[in-house]
Amino acid sequence: MKKPTVLGIIPARGGSKGIPGKNIKILGGKPLLAYTWDSAQNSTLLTKTILSSDDLEIIQVAKEIGLPVPFVRPDTLATDSSPTLPTIIHALAHFKSLGEEFDYVCLLQTTTPFRRPGMIDEAIAKLIDKKGDALVSVLAVPHEYNPHWVFESDSDDLLRIATGEEKIIPRRQELPPAYFRDGAIYLTKTSVILGENSLFGKNLTFIKGDWDRYVNLDTSQDWKKAEKMISKIYPEI
């Protein structure tokens, strides 16, 4: 049986406002995007990993750490409001023009940098085994924020359970597990991306991330949190 091919894409556009220059900002002695590149290099199931960026400074740093940059992303795909899917499709089209196609795409965001060892391969192996359309990494929602305990207000200023149920589940132990995307891994069949214009498809599975490695870098406070986490996750730094 032919080994599935997986394209790893590390998106890193310029113009970050919450943390200026965050993709190449130094964290623990190396640029932020190096953490995601390190994780990709440790994968045995990623066929190829590349950077997609519009920013020449980011591209230069990527090249310095050995991260391949096969093209410069068009400015039209690098605005504040640009969705992710066209960026992936652009990368796939680039490689197709060179006669290279992939079975899956693994999107690896720099802003969730602290993936546990082996996490990428765990994700790829699970999606292939489950024969699903896509996979995302998740974390469990704390019980107090479980959607069965979350309310919405209606036009009469009355609270309704967000799930639409009539009765509240009374005990924490009876709540079904709920999850949110942690941003570390998005893995999708190429046929779903191109055929359905979707990153998630109809059959979405998951792997669990790690709370002690979780940070989503969007603000200066997030950056400070990451700086405090570094010594615990990477004691050698």
Give the helix level as a range of percent.
25-40%
Rounded mean pLDDT is 95
Examine the secondary-structure arrangement and name the CATH architecture. Answer: Alpha-Beta Complex
Cross-sheet strand order for the largest sheet: 4-1-5-9-6-10
Q: How far from one another are the termini?
A: 42 Å
CATH fold description: Spore Coat Polysaccharide Biosynthesis Protein SpsA, Chain A
Summarize the helix and strand pattern as letters: EEEHEHHEHEEEEHEH
Proportion of beta-strand residues? 15-25%
Write the CATH homologous superfamily: Spore Coat Polysaccharide Biosynthesis Protein SpsA, Chain A
Our Rg estimate from Cα atoms comes to: 19 Å
Number of domains: 1
Q: Give the CA-based shape.
A: globular
Describe the biggest sheet?
6 strands, mixed
What is the number of helices? 6
In CATH, what is the class? Alpha Beta
Structural class: alpha/beta
Unreliable spans are none
Number of strands: 10
